[in-house]
């Protein structure tokens, strides 16, 4: 892959290097959109899933860091000259397996799909591209990113599935709170509040 990346045109190298370093910022934007969309529905379960996704993604990242400390696999760029890879090699002690970037991308993709199914093709493409870019720039082996994607996606899916009911109860409990409530449920416009049903008393026939 290092030879392939070295032979790629300069603009391609620059774009993939940029995406490899900053592409995960797009995940934050999508999470905000997913939360805003769920908040507008007023559905406690939907809001819970939109909020659990980022939490589960952070948990997946932390778990991948723990795995790194156990496996302690060096990166493919270690020992190579800096000009041989698209991005500089991380410092010694910053281990390779699994890829944190791929783990976050996989977890975020799974969580976003649970929150907003129509995002599936977009977030899947983003996650795969992130995994590919990490190998392309020379800082990861292919198995680092493949395991990272799977590890992140599975862990996020499990966390969201296990905690959604509990989180939805919390959303329902605090949706009327003066401070927290507006973050959980969008305020209804005047005139859209459903009025109570009034029974009309029918006069007896004579």
From TrEMBL:
Pfam families listed in its UniProt record: PAP2
Transmembrane segments annotated in the record for this chain: 16-36, 119-139, 145-168
GO molecular function list: hydrolase activity
Gene3D superfamilies cross-referenced by the UniProt entry: Phosphatidic acid phosphatase type 2/haloperoxidase (1.20.144.10)
Protein's cellular compartments: Cell membrane
Positions of the Phosphatidic acid phosphatase type 2/haloperoxidase domain: 47-160
Topology relative to the membrane: Multi-pass membrane protein
UniProt keyword terms in alphabetical order: Cell membrane, Hydrolase, Membrane, Transmembrane, Transmembrane helix
Keyword Disulfide bond belongs to the record: no
Gene Ontology CC: one annotated term: plasma membrane
Key word Transmembrane helix present: yes
Highest taxon listed in the record's lineage: Bacteria
Protein name: Phosphatase PAP2 family protein
């Amino acid at each position: 892959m290092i030879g392939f990346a070295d032979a790629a045109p300069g603009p391609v190298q620059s774009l993939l290097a940029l995406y490899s370093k900053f592409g995960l910022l797009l995940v934050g934007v999508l999470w905000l959109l997913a939360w805003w969309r769920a908040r507008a529905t007023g559905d406690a379960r939907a809001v819970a899933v939109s909020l659990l996704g980022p939490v589960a993604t952070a948990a997946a990242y932390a778990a991948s860091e723990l795995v790194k400390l156990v496996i302690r696999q060096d990166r493919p760029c270690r020992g190579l000259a800096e000009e041989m890879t698209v991005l500089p090699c991380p410092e010694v002690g910053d281990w390779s397996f699994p890829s944190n970037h791929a783990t976050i991308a996989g977890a975020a993709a799974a969580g976003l799909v649970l929150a907003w199914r129509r995002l599936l093709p977009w977030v899947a493409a983003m996650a795969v591209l992130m995994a590919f870019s990490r190998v392309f720039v020379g800082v990861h082996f292919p198995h680092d990113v493949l395991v990272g994607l799977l590890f992140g996606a599975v862990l996020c899916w499990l966390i969201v599935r296990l905690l959604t009911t509990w989180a939805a109860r919390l959303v329902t409990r605090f949706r009327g709170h003066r401070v927290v409530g507006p973050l959980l449920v969008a305020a209804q416009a005047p005139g859209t509040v459903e009025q109570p049903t009034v029974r009309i008393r029918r006069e007896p026939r004579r």
